[in-house]
Amino acid sequence: MTSTATRTIAEHTIVLAAWIDENSDRLDKFRRPVEGGVRGAVEHARELMALLYEAGWSRWGWPEEIGGLGGSELHRAAVYDGLGAAGIQIPEVFVILETVAPVLAHYSPELAADHLPAYLRGEEIWGQGFSEPEAGSDLASVRTFARATGDGFVLNGQKIWMTLGSSANYAMVLARTGTTESRHRGLTMLWVDLASAGVTVRPIVAANGREEFAEVFFEDVEVPAEYLVGPQDGGWGVAMFLLQYERGMYAWLRQSILHHRLSAVAGRVRPGDTRSSRALGEAFVLLAALRARSVTTVTALAEGRNPGPVVSVDKMLLSSAERATFEAARKAQFEEFVVSDDLESATLRDEWFYSRATSIFGGAVEVQRDIVARHVLCLPTGRRANS
Ligand SMILES: Cc1cc2nc3c(=O)[nH]c(=O)nc-3n(C[C@H](O)[C@H](O)[C@H](O)COP(=O)(O)OP(=O)(O)OC[C@H]3O[C@@H](n4cnc5c(N)ncnc54)[C@H](O)[C@@H]3O)c2cc1C
User: Fold this and answer.
1) Start and end of every Acyl-CoA dehydrogenase/oxidase C-terminal domain (predicted)?
2) Is 246 a catalytic residue?
3) Three-state secondary structure readout of the chain
4) Which CATH number does the domain 236-376 belong to among 2.20.25.90, 3.40.50.620, 3.90.550.10, 1.20.140.10?
5) Is any ligand 1 atom within 6 A of the Cβ of residue 376?
6) Per residue in 321-359, pLDDT tens?
7) For the chain, which has fewer Cβ within 10 Å, the N-terminal or C-terminal residue?
8) Is any atom of ligand 1 closer than 6 Å to the C-beta of 134?
């Protein structure tokens, strides 16, 4: 492989396409749906991770000091785009990678050096521990409490909706170190070993029947001082740093997959089926808008610029494009969607169900609209005056 300095994004894309071509047989299994529910999907993902690590692809875009091969977010984006275009199902572990790893790399390079290579090889799984039963959209009301002991922290509380929580070895947990009234000023980000004494993980079965999430309970869990991510009481800033990736890089990653998915749907629309054609067209327009918007965001991240509150637009476009894509798929494959029991039809139903959730995770769409209204469009707040 050429060094980062000489590997432009255009070269990166060409070399990747050639590698995918040469390794088509080995990659073929990653184009097809997987049996065995979420656990089956995780084991399958580990195999793909190991393959991409061995070939170096997943190491591009991460600093060499933490086990990467250098380059920027654009190198990672090019890999997602190349894999997506080749019909390879980019597994959920990459979503968590794009959410958690940038934070470790930025705030805790030592932790990143210890854990990123293991994650990229498929040996570790991580979770994101933000939401609580009474703290979802209102993240500043987190109640999981971390008491500073001098040697570290003692953690007590509960997290919920942790994606892949049942398989996770470590989690990035947002905890309260100040008083409840301190709201966003009294929060701290911690890296937590989920094998620690006092951690209980309970799977949650989603409406599609899959164990997508887990709730995680902490009872006097000891967290060493070196597992502090960012400053104590500075967890809000760390969480905001994370959200630009959870909303921005995630949107890019998904649009890479959705473009390929929509092409497959187009191949199934029957002549004269105007209902499906219209749905397909609507999804295509939304995806085109998402891709155009997302390029700007990924470029900003690659240049070390914070995209700011406008990243909420990426999240909203993604939510609409995701729903529209699977709605088009449902219409074009209506019979299979409703009655077939084969793996492909069951996977389509799972994907359709999951597409409904895009308007919730990473910040609900209603909240994103509010952010855009206040912080991007600077609209006046307060009650509407009676006319
Ligand atoms: C598929 C999926 C994966 C997830 N994975 C994770 C994960 O890995 N880790 C994690 O920590 N969390 C995860 N979550 C949780 C997710 O972050 C929360 O569901 C989300 O933040 C919303 O919080 P809530 O569910 O408590 O709903 P609430 O905050 O109670 O919101 C309920 C409704 O009220 C609306 N609402 C709330 N506040 C406002 C407001 N100010 N203005 C207008 N409307 C408002 C919302 O839009 C929503 O429709 C996941 C969720 C899903 C669906």
Assistant:
1) 234-377
2) yes
3) CCCCCCCCHHHHHHHHHHHHHHCHHHHHHHHCCCCCHHHHHHHHHHHHHHHHHHCCHHHCCECHHHCCCECCHHHHHHHHHHHHHCCCCCCHHHHHHHHHHHHHHHHCHHHHHHHHHHHHCCCCCEEEECCECCECCCHHHCCCEEEECCCEEEEEEEEEEEECCCCCCEEEEEEECCCHHHHHHHEEEEEEECCCCCEEEEEECCCCCCCCEEEEEEEEEEEEHHHEECCCCCHHHHHHHHHHHHHHHHHHHHHHHHHHHHHHHHCCCCCCCHHHHHHHHHHHHHHHHHHHHHHHHHHHHHCCCCCHHHHHHHHHHHHHHHHHHHHHHHHHCHHHHHHCCCHHHHHHHHHHHHHHHCCCCCCCHHHHHHHHHHHHCCCCCCCCCCC
4) 1.20.140.10
5) no
6) 999 999 999 999 988 888 888 988 888 898 998 899 999
7) C
8) no
